[in-house]
């Protein structure tokens, strides 16, 4: 429970937390270490490792090790399948894509991954993963029956379902690189309906958009795509972190 406790502490102290998503497929482990170190300087609260692509094996392990060498931040796996597990990570978002049409993404991959998580002693953080339009690669690969952007009730029903199934975290995902992020109104509806730790990501690129999702009740904001460009990376992350922390607790 160490990483979960840490995240809850950050949320209660700062009003909200920020996580930086790094896809091990998009750069070599050395560069991933540089990104993590800049994100850490910019005030991010942890590093998520994963992606819808093939983030696994040696590249995944080396990426985690390099990040751990460069920063003191917790490294949390964000796997697309049971192959996205590294023994060197601190925790794993143990996710079920509740609105998938394919049982593989709901419980089969999880049944294959659970014994590995136990063997490696990685902290599992149970999470309902809900993919909202446009969904992008996460929606396509996860065979999601996408939650329409205007169907706040459906998002809230799925999130409550996750809570009643025992999941302590719910992730509202618009998909990496999404043109439009999850609507603030949807975040608000899920917040009003559940008591979970509410994670929001996909298409969040500006401090304003991040702050609006925090004011609507988001507890953790995830950004990935903005860290891929090295130009002004540290400053971009710092501005988003600052906006998140000054909007928290609303
Ligand atoms: C993807 O929600 C995350 O799973 C991050 O999305 O890459 O658009 O920041 P972005």
Describe this structure in words.
With 250 residues, the protein is an alpha/beta fold. The chain has one domain: FMN-linked oxidoreductases (TIM Barrel), CATH 3.20.20.390. 44% of the residues lie in helices and 18% in strands. The protein has 9 helices and 8 strands. The chain has helices at residues 2-14, 29-41, 57-70, 103-120, 136-141, 152-164, 184-193, 207-215, 233-247, and strands spanning 17-22, 46-50, 75-78, 91-97, 123-131, 169-173, 197-201, 220-223. The protein has an 8-stranded parallel beta barrel with strand order 1-2-3-4-5-6-7-8, surrounded by 8 helices. Helix 8 runs parallel beside helix 9 (233-247). The chain starts with a helix and ends with a helix. The model has no long low-confidence stretch (mean pLDDT 96). Bound molecules: SN-glycerol-1-phosphate (1GP). SN-glycerol-1-phosphate binds at residues 21, 138, 173, 176-178, 201-204, 222-225.
Write the layout of secondary structure elements.
Elements: H1 2-14, E1 17-22, H2 29-41, E2 46-50, H3 57-70, E3 75-78, E4 91-97, H4 103-120, E5 123-131, H5 136-141, H6 152-164, E6 169-173, H7 184-193, E7 197-201, H8 207-215, E8 220-223, H9 233-247
Parallel strand pairs: 1-2, 1-8, 2-3, 3-4, 4-5, 5-6, 6-7, 7-8
SN-glycerol-1-phosphate is lined by residues 21, 138, 173, 176-178, 201-204, 222-225.
Summarize the structure.
This protein is of the alpha/beta class and 250 residues long. Helix content is 44%, strand content 18%.
């Amino acid at each position: 429970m160490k990483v979960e406790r840490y995240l809850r502490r950050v949320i209660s102290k700062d009003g909200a937390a920020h996580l930086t998503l790094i896809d091990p497929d998009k750069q070599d482990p050395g560069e991933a270490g540089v990104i993590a170190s800049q994100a850490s300087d910019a005030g991010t609260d942890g590093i998520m490792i994963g992606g819808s692509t093939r983030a696994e094996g040696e590249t995944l392990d080396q990426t985690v090790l390099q990040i751990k060498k460069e920063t003191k931040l917790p490294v949390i796996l964000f796997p697309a399948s049971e192959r996205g597990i590294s023994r060197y990570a601190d925790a794993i978002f143990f996710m079920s894509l509740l609105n998938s049409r394919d049982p593989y993404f709901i419980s089969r991959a999880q049944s294959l991954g659970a014994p590995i998580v136990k063997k490696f002693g990685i902290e599992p953080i149970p999470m309902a993963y809900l993919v909202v339009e446009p969904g992008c690669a996460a929606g396509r690969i996860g065979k999601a029956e996408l939650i329409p952007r205007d169907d706040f009730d459906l998002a809230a029903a799925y999130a409550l379902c996750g809570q009643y199934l025992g999941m302590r975290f719910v992730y509202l995902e618009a998909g990496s690189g999404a043109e439009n992020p999850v609507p603030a109104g949807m975040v608000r509806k899920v917040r009003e309906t559940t008591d979970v730790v509410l994670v929001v990501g996909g298409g969040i690129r500006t401090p304003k958009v991040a702050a609006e999702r925090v004011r609507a009740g988001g507890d953790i904001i995830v950004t990935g795509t903005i860290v891929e460009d090295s130009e002004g990376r540290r400053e971009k992350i710092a501005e988003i972190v600052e906006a998140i922390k000054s909007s928290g607790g609303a």
